[in-house]
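Researcher: Sequence of Sll0761 protein follows. Predict its structure.
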Amino acid sequence: MTMKTAQITRCLALSALTTGLFSFAPVQGQSTGTVPGEDPFVSNNVDPSKQGLGGGFDPMSLIHNANLSRTRNGSDFAEDTQRNINKAADQFKQLQQQRLMEMQQQQTEPAIAPAPGSP
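Model: Prediction complete. Tokens:
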């Protein structure tokens, strides 16, 4: 083995040993903070209506409460949509009739032609 290869081999062996030692250390000292056999997700569920103001900020509860407290249901949404479509259709018809009347007025009015011999 050449000197450079020996240095690379020692360096790799040392880094593997160091990585191995440090990766096992946190595993031995970690604690989940739960009772064995207890599902941590089930024990953390709290009814948001009973939680009160002192419970802290929970984004999932915020989203859940927003979904539960909707003021509009599906039929309200359908009615609003139909009302908006009808309103837009009425506006379009009025504008269309107005344009047609303007076109008819322009066609019935004779175009003013310049007098013959004028510059």
